[in-house]
Amino acid sequence: MSFYPEFDEVLDRLIKKAKKYDSINLSVTDLNGILRTKTIPGDVFHRVVKGEGGIGMYSGTYSIAANSDAFYPEIFLKHYMADGFLIPQDAPPYENHWCAPATAANEKVLEVICDIYWKHDKSQVYNSPRHLTNKLLRQLDEQGLSIYSAMEYEFTVFESDGKTPAWRGVHAYSNIVIRKVALTVSDLKACLKKAGIPVRSVNTEYGPGQLEITIFPKYGITMADDAIMFKHAVMETFLNHNFKATFMSKSDETSSPSSGHYNFSIWNKEKTKNLFYDSEAEDNLSQLARRFISGIITHAKALTGLFDPTVNCYRRLVPHTFAPFTVSWSYEAREAFIRAKNSAENCTYLEVRAPSGSSNPYLVLSGVIAAGLDGIKRNLDIPPFEGDITDCELLPRSLNEALNYLENDEILVESLGEDFVDHYITLKRKLEIAKLEGMDDIEKERQLYMDLI
Fold first, then answer.
1. Angle (nearest 5°) at CA 274 between 272 and 275
2. Residues 393 and 298 sit within 8 Å (Cβ to Cβ)
3. Which of 64, 246, 373, 415 has a 20 to 30 A CA-CA distance from 159?
């Protein structure tokens, strides 16, 4: 019997699969959206996870910055910095064809989504972003609702020096320019397809070395699982081809900011009807869609602390960058916080344009659900769209300002959990803001964020 009998069925399935693989990556996603992994050889996987009781994992994994600087919350010190256990979650594993062992040594690698559980009482560590998302998804399910969504990422590609863009100038949607990285992109598409994350579209974007790649939407938490795997596949595949890819909002003074737009619709529990669509409404938007818009707009300033989680992100949220800078919604305006897409039943969805490319998809999904549920609970409604977003309230201009709004948003704090919000804000203030805010030094920001975000 394993450390956590409730997951024995999941473990048994993995043990059968493990025999076909050289390596099993047991991975958790930290608060920064970075995979933290322990790798177990496939031929000893059964012995380690069952015979030895489980895989120990540093329980402070959710208390570290992108560069692995750490702070120690009270609950962590109370348990003497003890290890937790890595427990595989009931989620489809991914075939990893992009990591170094797979590409350099031709190994077969399986990537397994995990979470960390305390040893002393077998409870899930409370500050896990994936744990938080599952909690919010259960609340949505209790309303008879499902969420169907996808992240839409931009990123910047540099030569191996990490400083020279893969191409110069502004060449959006250029098939000529993309030739520079065409073999890399083809390799990436093939790897993602084998992992069950097929690519939907690829194009060059507005800045030097900038690409946008979209993947297909999924229901529930699978969207965030896919997004995390996608980002790591991008970074590792480009490294394999002697390039460096980063999802930093702004990776140098000349770069175009990279976004992580979040596109979603709400469906019935059976996943047969798009509840955002109303053919009788003048703009095809249902009352439920309006509740979600109003909830997100009501909490927009606080949500920015989740959607734009680095000091560097606020170089993007300024006018004339195709990014939002006001608390606003629109049908078409690219600088709105939300765009409502409403052309047909299966094409009616909301595009939340605030998230950065460096956002954590679990926290984006959690924040949207929390705000949307508040819109439903309080029957919030939005004023008619007037078309001028520049007259709306400004979004926070720094990470610290955004965290202040999050900290004081009582509804969001209650929904996300006071312990989680306090932990998240403390991590950001101690390990990022204290080092970077007010310095206006993009090189120091690159040192903190660029390698892993």
1. 120
2. no
3. 64
What SS3 class is residue 37?
strand
pLDDT in tens, 388-439: 777 889 999 999 999 999 999 999 999 999 999 999 999 999 999 998 877 7
Distance CA 319, CA 9 (A): 52
**CA distance to 251, 376, 384, per residue, from 282 (Å):** 42, 21, 12
Rounded distance, CA 337 to CA 297, Å? Answer: 8
- Say how far apart CA 356 and CA 306 lie, in whole Å: 10
Whole-angstrom Cα distance, residue 357 to residue 251?
11
| Structure tokens that stand for 178 in this block | 């993309």
Contact (CB, 8 A) for 351 and 341: yes
Distance of CA 60 to the CA centre of its chain: 20
Higher-pLDDT residue of 327, 77: 327
Q: Specify which residues 32 forms β-bridges with.
A: none
Question: Given phi > 0 = left and psi -120 to 50 = alpha, else beta, which region is 417?
Answer: left
- Which of 270, 147, 113 lies closest to 217, judged by CA? 147
pLDDT tens digits for range 100-158: 888 878 899 999 999 988 877 777 777 899 999 999 999 999 999 999 999 999 999 99
Q: What is the CA radius of gyration of the chain?
A: 21
Half-sphere exposure for 132 (CA within 13 Å, toward CB) = 33
Q: Please compute the mean of the pLDDT values over residues 280-284 and round it to a whole number.
A: 90
d(C-alpha 445, C-alpha 255), whole Å:
14
Secondary structure class of 255 (helix, strand, coil): coil
Q: State how far the Cα of 93 lies from the Cα of 248, in Å rounded to an integer.
A: 27
What are the tokens at 283?
Answer: 């703009």
**What amino acid is encoded at 59 in this protein?**
S
Q: Strand (E) positions, 179-242?
A: 199-204, 210-215, 218-219
pLDDT of 225 above 60: yes
Task: Give the closest residue to 35 by CA, choosing from 66, 76, 72, 70.
Answer: 66
For the record, the structure tokens of 259 come out as 């976004």
Give residues with Cβ within 8 angstroms of 140, minimum separation 6: 146, 147, 369, 373
